[in-house]
From TrEMBL:
Coiled coil: none
Leading EC class: transferase
Assigned protein family: Belongs to the class I-like SAM-binding methyltransferase superfamily. C5-methyltransferase family.
Organism of derivation: Paenibacillus roseus
Designated name of the protein: DNA (cytosine-5-)-methyltransferase
Pfam assignment, any one: DNA_methylase
A GO molecular-function descriptor: DNA (cytosine-5-)-methyltransferase activity
Active site residues of this protein: C99
Length: 354
């Protein structure tokens, strides 16, 4: 019996048929997108990453030919002679610009235009500028296709004007952009992760409009549940609240609203075997509904469709997974780009090989 798509190993990539198409991944973090492209048969030539810890993990697991440990602002200013020729013949430039300023939680508009430093050792950056820094890289490298992932907060409220600016900039650069709202739960991922995906084809290519429509059956938490979780101390407030849960409670906030008359700890989620897990975030707490414990690392890896043999080294498993695109989600997108654009009669893939 074959394994489900979410149950896989990095070693499985050796048997994937290559399609001859190349990718550079920006804001690569743990390489969720990278693994998705590789699962779809692409060659990921390298990555751009600002975080030294994430770069070490990325290099251990993905062995890129061209790793660039630097802010995207520095990468875009590198002289052409400092870059390998392969990067000027890319099929896809991929990136997931950090998106916390567009999150629907908190006073997000207050963060726009200000500088933030989110991890030790990183440069202070204006996160709402990073998408345009990424597009500056596209202007420099002129890939055939641009793919960018971000949170759905970008298309809600005042942020919709920001999206319009992104789309306008892509057109200025000579690309035909499309914007998709996708839910990973329809793509074989054991998680309801809604994201927007920008896909832009260079205008000199005769590609038809891309269609991204997915309708795979949902994968419930009970199907991926594995390993022992960390018990909640019985002297903790969280444990006492957990005891008061009801089957309909999705998070501890539901419990406190009912029992204390206030919403507290809404980011402490309750996972039931008969439901699909909500978005896996790097900073939230996830408890099993039927036992007083946090979910296991094995759970996290499967929910995010990371491979079972991934080496997290000295990093927190939930942080790496929560900051990454689910590989299976990006694989589904990359497959469609190949089949509808690169794999048909409209165009042929480049001859680059890793």
């Amino acid at each position: 019996m074959s394994r489900p798509a979410w149950d896989w190993r990095l070693s499985d990539l050796a048997s994937v048929q290559q399609n001859g198409l190349t990718v550079l991944s920006c804001f690569a973090c743990g390489g969720g997108s990278t693994m998705g492209y590789k699962r779809a048969g692409y060659t990921v030539l390298g990555n751009v990453e600002i975080d030294p810890q994430m770069m070490r993990i990325y290099q251990r697991n993905h062995n890129p030919r061209f790793p660039f440990l630097m802010p995207i602002q520095e990468f875009k200013l590198l002289h052409d002679s400092e870059l390998p020729a392969e990067l000027f013949n890319l099929d896809i430039l991929d990136g997931s610009p950090p998106c916390s300023v567009f999150s629907m939680s908190g006073q997000r508009e207050d963060k726009w235009g200000s500088e933030h430093k989110f991890r030790e050792g990183q440069t202070v950056q204006r996160l709402d500028d990073l998408f345009f820094d990424f597009l500056d890289v596209a202007e420099k490298l002129q890939p055939r296709v641009i793919v960018a992932e971000n949170v759905t907060g970008m298309i809600r409220g005042n942020a919709r004007g920001y999206v319009s600016l992104v789309l306008s900039r892509m057109r200025e650069l000579g690309y035909r952009p499309q914007l998709f709202l996708l839910n990973s739960a329809t793509m074989g991922v054991p998680q309801k992760r809604e994201r927007i995906i920008f896909v832009a084809a260079r205008s000199d290519q005769d590609f038809p409009p891309l269609k991204l429509e997915f309708n795979e059956p949902p994968v419930l938490y009970g199907e991926v549940r594995s390993g022992e979780g960390t018990p909640i101390g019985k002297d903790r407030v969280t444990y006492k609240r957990w005891l008061l849960r009801r089957p309909s409670d999705a998070d501890v906030g539901d419990i406190t609203r009912r029992t204390e008359g206030r919403q507290s700890s809404f980011n402490t989620r309750l996972l039931a075997d008969n439901k699909v897990v909500n978005t896996l975030l790097s900073s939230s707490v996830y408890l099993r509904h039927d036992e007083p414990c946090k979910i296991s690392d094995e759970d996290i890896i499967r929910i995010q469709t990371f491979p079972a043999d991934y080496e997290f080294m000295d990093a927190d498993v939930q942080y790496v997974c929560g900051m990454s695109v689910p590989p299976l989600m990006m694989e589904r997108i990359a497959e469609q780009i190949y089949m509808q654009w690169f794999g048909g009669n409209n165009s042929e893939g480049s001859d680059n090989t890793d």
